[in-house]
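Here's my example:
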Amino acid sequence: MNNYFKPFRLEHYRFLDERKQVWSSGTNHTNDTFFSSLALPTEEQECTIRIIFFLFNLILKLTIKKVIVEINCQQNDIPMERNFHTATLIDEKIFFFGGKSKEGSTNDFFYLDKLKKIDKKKGTLPFVNLNDKSLNIPKHYGATTTSFGELKDSIFFFGGDMGKSISSSELAFSFNITQLEWKNITISQGMIPDRRRHLSAITDNNDKIYLFGGEFVDATKPFDNSNEMNVFDTILNNWTIGKNGPLGRKGYTATFLPRTKEIIYIGGYGENAFANITNTTTNPPEPRYLHTAVFTNDERIIIFGGVGTIETKLPIVISTEIPVLNYYVVLNTNTLEWYHGVPNSLDRVPYVGHTATLINDFMFVAFGSIYSTDKPFNNDILIYKIGDYANFTEVFTTEDPPDPSKKIIFIVGAVISALFSIIIGFIGIKIRNKFVKYPGERPPVFIMSEP
């Protein structure tokens, strides 16, 4: 019997098992050349191999995670095109509700999360579908909403055209973003207002909601538009009637000024005429209605879109179907002076039935109608970076552009960290080798004779 070969094979199998390798037990190796080719790596080589495998696994995991995130973003429900919906801002989330499309009215309910990365060039917008929460609200268009509550975490909904549904029990609702449930507004006292559409709701500093004007939905009314001011106290849950306005109107905008506690009403249409754009202002823009308005931190009101071009051909007809020439105008509420932007191209830009929401310096113009015969509805959200006066720029992402200096600092820091890790690892190996009898080598094989 070969006293050398047998124990050497046993030692070889032990060595392979420690490395988690599997060899066929039926293989018959008969020379020492095979074993010399399987010499153990040195500590430095083993450390390098471990680092390479670690980096490979890290890159693989990050790549898979990125692919999954992109797939999830692409699977987000893209809301269908619409106009005359509502948009309410709560905690940098824009909650969209209802509206009208080619298929008719809808009760779609979803929100756009500004806290997530928004980049229109890299994927779809981060919409979150809440349709299962709005099943009890009839399909509608032309309603109005506003946020209220101590934390401004609830939505107040009023009116709108719900088709055959004209019940007062379906006139006003509330939605809390924590409870995620729509509820009927419970009235303790006061007269419930008539249902209207194309009006605006405003919440003041005391959580009272003001509703002015709007177009009556009930066709039996003797006139088309209301000039009534209805006030709802969200704390006492009662309705009161405030001072009526001078002219019934629809399609205006209402903006609350927190510092002066005033409400600025701009534009509108009623009694077969346009309402004054505003009183006692300098350089006012052309009359309009069905436009939008947002209030900036420096106390400017930005008006976007609207219809109302006046035709001069005889007989003189006031058009309510043609967009205004200048989509973007700005009112300085401190000086009451208007600033006019450069007239926009009408391509892709909604002029009516859209909503505008301001988050920090970004204005989100959502959905609405485009002045076009082949595509009357808009399924896009335009993002504008707001500048001073009447300056603005369309952007496709809400993230700040990368800072080249920060990128250089990051690269330098990564290189220094890598070099530091290598040096520490090398010193650690040298120290370890002092206490290891056979550093980086295979221990000698001791041959035992058979008894």
Q: What stands out?
A: The CA atoms of residues 51 and 422 lie 10 Å apart. Confidence is low (pLDDT under 50) at residues 1-39, 64-75. The chain is about 20% helix and 25% strand. The first helix runs from residue 5 to 18.
